[in-house]
Amino acid sequence: MTGRGRALALAGVAAGSLWAGTQEAWAGAFGIREQSTQAQGLSFAGAASGSGGVSSMFWNPAVITMNPGWVTEQNLTFINLSAEITPTLGTNPGFLPLGGSGEIGQGAVLPAGATSYQLNDRLWIGLQTGAPFGLVTKPNQVWSGEVYARSSRIFSLAFNPVIGFKVNEWLSVAAGPNIEYFRLTLRQALPIPGLSPTLYPSAFLKGESWGVGFTAGATITPWAGTVLGIGYRSSVHHDIEGSIGVPLVALARTAGQVTANLNTPEKVSVGLTQAINPVTRVNLGFEWDNWSRLGNVGIVSRTLGVPVSNLPLDYKDGYTYSIGAEYDWSPNFTLRGGFAYELSPIVFANRSARLPDGDRYIASIGASYRWNEKLTLNLAYSHFFLDRNRILSGPGRDYNVGNIAFAGYTDASADVVSVGFRYVFGEPARPAVPAPLVRKY
User: Fold this and answer.
1) pLDDT, tens digit (0-9, with 9 covering 90-100), for 156-166
2) Mean pLDDT for the chain overall
3) Adjacent-strand bridge partners of 229
4) pLDDT tens digits for 260-314?
5) What share of the chain is helix, strand, coil (3-state, %, to 5)?
């Protein structure tokens, strides 16, 4: 084999093994839903019908017409993931003595915000910002699954300006572009024949991209006290440009730079808010994420101009069902709680060591305190329950690194705490057409 051919073959192995981990970063289970402190307190029930305040723009931009005047909300969320992977006897005998992953969870702080401004009785403008995708996991440097994962970091940031229009007393619509930045850094051990697994060097993949999509939505108020909201976030196409770093000089010279085309999944959100009495509201929610659209992701060498890998991600679609309720204890204090069940696109067939995820149950509580006519403080807490799940990677499975097999099971959970505030600038405008639902903030 020529030097160029060897470099191309090595590029395929390195790119294939590294990019195998990106699938977990894009799983619906780690599509970041924590964009609103208020909505989190309800386990995101009714988020598309405005239960999350102005921050509900993430699910449905049309909710801005429910907020008269000039209003801003800012949220700060701490996600504490706890997860551990324990190898079993199915793992390659030479790797089993290396032990388990240890604690792979890494805490992360996520900011998100939304602002709406009423131009007149019918027209609003707004801006929502946040991170729609993200992942931080880091197992032990040396462990039984090191050839599949040593660390994973995914970062994203989206800017979504929108225009909302109140068509009449019962219908509002809104839409706007969604500008999204995405960056990843993935590391894993590179197996080198003749070298002890405890001495394997780390290969890495880095890449980043900007992409543009759009959001759209509507709110329907058939009668006082009832709001139905439907929102849509389009797929965002990313032309990712990056590099593969491996401890092989020849490879770094010939195939270090790579590109990949990746389309994020569409999201459809439906929410229903029903006022039971002047101080009590019940919320329902449903979300569908089209993760199955990802299909195969091709990895192309920018230097050689040919594919070096083709990865079948084989995702399932993601579904989330939620229910929650709010109670105004007093004019200044609101309590809320909710429960959600999420069917993850990650199943046994596509689960690997980068993210030990699966179906989850989410229990949440929250509260809002109206400090004065302008300022409202929000607080929420959620716990994520995950079943114990199995992992199998290696020969005959989706991700094959030589003849190295990894088998194990995972234990994972997460705690999420969010704080935020809502601030009304100046005197709120009094629109000629009433807002669909009056909330006490």
Assistant:
1) 999 999 999 99
2) 85
3) 219, 271
4) 888 889 999 999 999 999 999 999 999 999 988 877 767 777 877 777 665 556 7
5) 15, 50, 35
Gyration radius of the chain's alpha carbons: 24
Q: How far is CA 84 from CA 104, 189, 193, 414, in A?
A: 6, 18, 28, 12
Query: CA 347 to CA 343: how far, in whole Å?
Result: 9
pLDDT at 327 over 60: yes
- Return the exposure string of 377-415: e unless at least 16 CB atoms fall within 10 Å of the residue's CB, then b: ebbbebebebeebebbbbeeebbbbeebbbbbebebebe
Number of C-beta neighbours around residue 4 at 10 A: 12
The token duo for 321 is 């069902």
Closest CA to 336 of 370, 362, 365: 365
Structure tokens at 413: 């959970």
Element (H, E) at 7: helix 3-19
| Residue in the block written with tokens 């046994």 | 348
CB 307 within 8 A of CB 323: no
Cα dihedral 38, 43, 47, 48 in deg (nearest 10):
180
